[in-house]
Amino acid sequence: MKKLIYLISILFLASCSEDYLERGSLTQLAEGNFWQNEKDALLGINGVYEVLQDRVMYSGNLNGVAGIPQHDSFADNTFNNYKFEGPGNFVEGRADPAYGFFLSFWTSLYRGIARANVAIENIARIPDSNISASSRDALVAQAKFLRALFYFNLAVYFEDAPLITSTQTLEEAYVPKNSYEELRAFVISELRAAADALPVSYPPSQFGYATKGAALSLLARFELYNQNYGEVIRLTSEIMSLGYQLHPSYEQLFTEAGEQSKEIIFSVRFIQDQSNNGETFSSTFLGIPKVNVQPMPNLVNSYLCIDGLPISSSPLYNPQKRKENRDPRLSASIYFEGDIFVKYLDRPFRGNTATKFGLKKYVRDDQSADGIAPFSPGGQDFYVIRYADVLLMRAEALAESGQLSEVYPLLDQIRTRAGMPTVTDVNGTGLSQSELLNLVRLERRVELAFEGLRFMDVKRLGEVEAAYARAKADPVGPYNPQYRGRLSEVFAIPQSEIDANPNLVQNPVWN
Fold first, then answer.
1. Which residues pair with 340 in a beta bridge?
2. Which string of DSSP letters, residue by residue, matches 332-351?
3. Helix (H) or strand (E) holding 441
4. Are 200 and 242 in contact (CB under 8 A)?
5. Per-residue model confidence as pLDDT tens digits over 151-188
6. How far is residue 481's CA from residue 80's CA, in Å, rounded to a whole number?
7. In this structure, are residues 289 and 341 in contact, taking their beta carbons and an 8 Å threshold?
8. What does the H/E/C string look like for 23-45?
9. What is the pLDDT at residue 283?
């Protein structure tokens, strides 16, 4: 699939572009002799997956518009030193509806929705003689899953946005926005339908296409976001029966060697070659680790010591040697001064970032077998959802529901894989609900750090202001987070879209 996903049909190449919104229609595409058989349908579906590889989506960047892998910088996990990329200026309060990042993200999401709408409508019209019923159902379900993923991001970040579920003519393009609740209902409905029709797995050559587990897991994430804990418990129970398991090595998981682990539920796939068609979220400079995304001191301090105690109470903690005797996920995720971060040059990190720490997780530390340098586009897949996240979603939902005894074995699985003592061994099994929830949320923060989920988590927990305060308290000289209430929690509808569409009005937060 890594190669298939680059085979975008002539239909999409001729009719979709980054600036298609300026033409007035979110979905209108040229007609031709495409969508005639199963091969056409697969190429069309690949065209929808391709949008996930946009820089502002999951490809990320080394020096340009920020992608979802960089979204921890909208909260307290990382500092976006290149503030023009998006998160830095947003957190410092310098974003308005004309901010280019908003338009880039919005445009990419609707480009994916447009392609999904075209695929869904046209695959349904392919003659029965040219496609099997099972293939038709699975391909339409994949398009519905992807469309739901795009709308999921619109709902979380923009909240109110147009809900477009069919192709449009230019005359139909001036659509009003829909409410968050309408987007929410649609995402849930789409994911349920997709889960019913998607297979549990594919042959190895097709690894990466959306599965039943992917649809159920994204639905569980959205239900957790909406605090529907009973449904999260039900969904995660079903997911846990599908054969996923934790990868034995946390550090190896976030390299190309871990891409097809049984822990991966859904990933955006990339391939590295000599052209510029790979991802850049794993790229780094040779003189400094990925300087545009720097781990924050408050995150470093949140990792426990190897005895399972926080640095404030563990006798093992040495503030002069902050990496020693700590949760192994810390050294697997973050470079400390003196660590070798470019192996083929034997180059140590000099501590020359604003935060004094360097990003290691997901970041390449060597040239490829073909001699491609770490600063060039790479081939690292980005994991949108993995099994550890499912276990943590379930643990949180159970804790919120008061089913405390069932939380411990879930946390213990995560801790054991990480090489840490279990919660049961360190804290016992008599914790209060609030104490257990704090441990779940801590575990979620360190386990999922740098995976683009932190802003979503603090927003759903009502902790964006607290996250800004933690970031502001860190000794990072050029950083001045400014919490502005809801302006710090919702993205603005791009001003150019408001100007072009008389029926589209701005989110009241930004009026």
1. 348
2. HHEE-TT-EEEGGGTEEP-S
3. helix 433-447
4. yes
5. 999 999 999 999 999 998 887 889 999 999 999 999 99
6. 11
7. yes
8. HCCCCCCCCCCCCCCHHHHHHHH
9. 96
Give the residue from 257, 223, 251, 255 showing the smallest Cα distance to 239: 223
* Residue 288 and residue 358 in contact, taking contact as beta carbons nearer than 8 Å: yes
Which positions of the chain have pLDDT values less than 70? 1-32, 274-277
Flag whether the pTM goes above 0.70: yes
CA distances from 299 to 180, 319, 354, 420, 498 (A): 31, 15, 14, 18, 38
Q: Which amino acid is at 54?
A: D
What per-residue confidence (pLDDT) applies to 91? Answer: 98
Phi-psi category of 431—alpha, beta or left, where left has phi over 0 and alpha has psi -120 to 50?
beta
Asked if 98 and 89 count as a contact pair (C-beta separation under 8 A), the reply is no
Q: What distance separates the 2 farthest-apart alpha carbons in the chain?
A: 71
Give pairs for 124-131: CB < 8 Å, separation 24+: 125/35, 126/35, 126/36, 126/37, 126/38, 126/40, 126/41, 127/36, 130/36, 130/37, 130/38, 131/37, 131/38, 131/41
**Do 289 and 363 contact (CB within 8 A), yes or no?**
yes
Tokens encoding 8 = 């975008």
- Tell me how crowded residue 431 is: count the other CB atoms within 10 A of its CB: 17
Type and span of the H or E element at 298: helix 297-302
- Is 71 in a helix, a strand, or coil? helix
Closest by alpha carbon to 187, among 228, 157, 215, 227?
Answer: 215
Tokens matching residue 11: 């239909």
Measured between alpha carbons, how far is residue 40 from residues 119, 122, 124 in Å?
10, 10, 12
The three-class DSSP label of residue 279 is: strand
**Residue 371 to residue 378: CA distance in whole angstroms:** 12
Written in H, E and C, the secondary structure of 416-436 is HHHCCCCHHHHHCCCCCHHHH
Distance CA 496, CA 100 (A): 10
At residue 406, the 3 state secondary structure works out as helix
Structure token digits, residue 171: 């005359």
| Coil vs helix vs strand at 383 | strand
d(CA 222, CA 209): 20
